[in-house]
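Incident review: delayed structure delivery

Summary: a single-chain prediction request sat in the queue longer than the usual turnaround. Root cause was a stuck worker, restarted by the on-call engineer. No data loss occurred. The affected request and its eventual output are reproduced below so the record is complete for anyone auditing the incident later.

Affected input:
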Amino acid sequence: MTNVKYPPELFQLSNRQSRYGTVVLILLLQCLVPACAKKSPASPPIVLKPTPPPVHPASPGPPPAPARSGPSIRIGLSTTSREVRISAADDFYLVEKAPEAERQKIKGEFQVRVEREVQESSEVYRLPVASLANAEDAENLGRTLADKFSMPIVTRLNPSTRTTQVRLGAFSTRGEAQTFARGGLSAAGYAGALLVRETTASGGGSARLAVRGPENFFRLSSAGFLFSPGAGTSFLRLDGKPYRGVLNLGLNKNGRMTVVNQLGMEGYLYGVVPSEISPTAYPELAALAAQAVAARTYALKNMGRFNSEGFDLTADETTQVYGGVSAEKPATNAAVSGTCGLALYYHGELINAMYSSTCGGRTEDFSNVFDGAPVPYLTSVFCTVESGAPEVGLKGEHDLDDVLFADDGSPANRNLELAGVLALPEGRTLTAEYLRGKPTAEEIRAWVRRARELAGKPSSAPSPQAREIQSRAGFLRYAAESFFGTEEIVQRVSPGDAAYYLGNLKDGDQLPRPEAAVFTYLMQKGLWRPYPDNSIRAAQPILRSDALSALSRWLESARPDILKTGIFAGAGSPLPGTREVSISVKWGNRAQQFPLAREVRLFRRADERSTPVDTLKVIGNEKVRFHVRPDGKIDFLEVELNPTGASSDRFSPLAMWQTTLSRKVIAEKLRPLVSGIGEVRDLEPARLGNSGRAVRIRVTGSRGSTILNGNRVRIALGLKDTLFTITRAYNPEGLVESFTFNGRGWGHGVGLCQVGAFGMARAGLGFEDILKAYYKGVELRRAY
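Output delivered after worker restart:
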């Protein structure tokens, strides 16, 4: 999903274009695609048809073209290519971007590469100062360095890392470069710079594009080439990847090849929407339609943003991710077609429809994130349905009216009722009075035998050595040796382990050696805890509640699958002919309906404790653990409430996140953004936005401090969002060693929240209502 949508005013563009290339390109596209519908003064009611089920033909054919294409748009696929390969399943066409060039029908795979003849060359040494993920930050740093040192600056894009490296100087010798690196560059806070050697052309050698293909096909041009498909339903392939429309190849100022895909707006959106929001993970048509309208509006508003490069938008996160034909999906194609031509306007003008993946519960003001003037439709809003998310009421029943506690002081009802569901005490209804009593030796042996059976252990149990089994120590020894095996315990526990664990208990030294090994083993595995006063009370009689609670816990550890886990996806309709309630549980992209037993035991889980409840309101995406009895009904259900509350973006895996960075790493990553403050010592939010985001961050060094834009710091540090709190770890000298960012959200947080749109769609909102929830005061109109 797109994380960053930079506003167009951050870029200064010229309008230089290839006159002949543009004319030829327009004529080709007019032949390839049908005209769009005429612009309507008012929009008729819009009805989205349900997403058709996927069709799997015996031999896959190409997906159909949009019924209406929309205006033409140019997408920059690459600006750094040296060589590409172009092919098509059918005949296609090649024409040189030159006056009076003739179009030629071709077939097969063709190689296009940059070929240069360098007349004279020389070697220079440059100093790489920084590699930045943001090209604009790299350009700004370059200007700062040029002003400071009065030296030539070059920037180099690394396609593999998608970073831009800033290089300083053009030194004739290695020694000259090293001297400057140790002197002026080090004094400015850029110590440790490496050297790179570059070959520069001093004679201005010419670069041309060479096309080679079957049957000794060869063409050479400095103007570039256009490739177009031979039929409206066939695609061109660029290095094997299919694209609609035309491929425009030309040379750029860096001596590399710029590859542009020009096609109709609707076909472009076919490849954008599934690349920005997964229709598999978020399969609500209204959310996909909202994304389609936002992407269309964004593209129309930002047309021409990269005119100086020969295209309108990029194919990556800098603008909108575009994956071509291979990214297309039936559901997102339906969303695009169902909203064809629709865009968002504010006071009669297209809006800058910014969006990000996950807003963390509330979006942020444009002006706070991008240091620009306020934008009335890009203001902070809560990411939730105003009337409250639709709730599902679950009802449960319990055998125990009282809350019972285990010997360590924790509530035991959850484990006791699970023991009842699993029939550890077979044929017995559990009551508080019964559980507070002392078990007989026969009961204990039957419970342990049943626990072994449920855990799938061999029918022949190991021979426990314990003789007296009704005291706390006697029971735990007998049960542990029977359930885990005496040999396992002896092998796992050393005398040193026992001395370490039991030596920290009030009465641990009173245990005989065999019991000491058992208690140590259980403590190591987290399967037993002492009383709240840190004692064992080994000689006290064991209660039924303590014994059954312990066996239930051990059984879950031995067989984690005894309870199924999943995500609550909603309530289902009553089964035919019954009044039974069912719930839908999701695992990944698969969901299944389960009916609830009338006497389902219902628990709410929070802070690692489960509380019995009679009713529970759920809104979706809660974690659930449950037991299914042989007739397929759920008789035990444990629900963990969403840690992010009722926010519509709670379905995102990045609704909450955590990242730890050392102070050294942070200092290195922030080096291009700060100067004159010395060694970085600390950073902290200096100002919070309306959503709680750190819109200004103070960086403190050994010689001073500076305040930076929070979003720039986020990008430099590689954080997912600026909605975070910071926890620090200190070294023995009292200096910060590392910073842990505990955050919510992913992206800049301005405009539409993509996962939030899915949550709103699940709550029943239509795509127009979703869009107007995020973009305040806008209207939906047909742009074409």
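Verification: The chain has five domains: 8-117+206-370, 121-201, 392-396+562-645, 438-542, 657-743.
Action items: add queue-age alerting; document worker restart procedure.
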